[in-house]
Amino acid sequence: TVINGTLLREVNVTLSSFDVSATTEDYTAIAENVTISENETQICMDVMLSDDDILEEDEDFLLSLATTDDNINVTLSPNETRVIIMNDDTVTIGFNQSSYNATEGSDASVEVCTSVLNGILGRNVTVTFFTTDGTATS
User: Fold this and answer.
1) Predicted TM-score (pTM) of this structure
2) Span 21-26, mean pLDDT?
3) Tens-digit pLDDT profile for residues 76-109
4) How are the residues of the chain apportioned to helix, strand and coil, as percentages rounded to the nearest 5?
5) For 45, what's the count of Cα atoms within 13 Å in the CB-facing half-sphere?
6) 83 vs 30: CA distance, rounded Å
7) 3-state secondary structure the chain
């Protein structure tokens, strides 16, 4: 967007992307020359994002503008912006079985397992276990 002044001739700028926590697996990198025409006040471009099924933190990348025309006095400000890709994926974690049977005894135990039932984990997740009394007591 032209913030101050009027363009009386076209101006060439380069739009480039830079990874921060996002990588080109998360978006399509861009390095493109853009021409802003005389009297034009705004140019919009799409940056394609990748859709995955991985539960992960929000990720970001930078977009930067640089002038490619040394023959014109153009100030690019701000010349950088941050794009945050907000994670929209979910994961279901649960017990492998709805109930477990165990035989009592002095050295008895029961192995209880949890699994990712739906989705893909792309980061560590902490699951808290606790017991509550049913017909047995602790």
Assistant:
1) 0.70
2) 92
3) 888 899 999 998 888 888 888 888 888 887 777 7
4) 0, 35, 65
5) 19
6) 13
7) CCCCCCCCCCEEEEEEEEECCCCCCCECCCEEEEEECCCCCCCCCCCCECCCCEECCCEEEEEEEEECCCCCCCCCCCCEEEEEECCCCCCEEEECCCCCCCCCCCCCCCCCCEEEEECEECCCCCCCCCCCCCCCCC
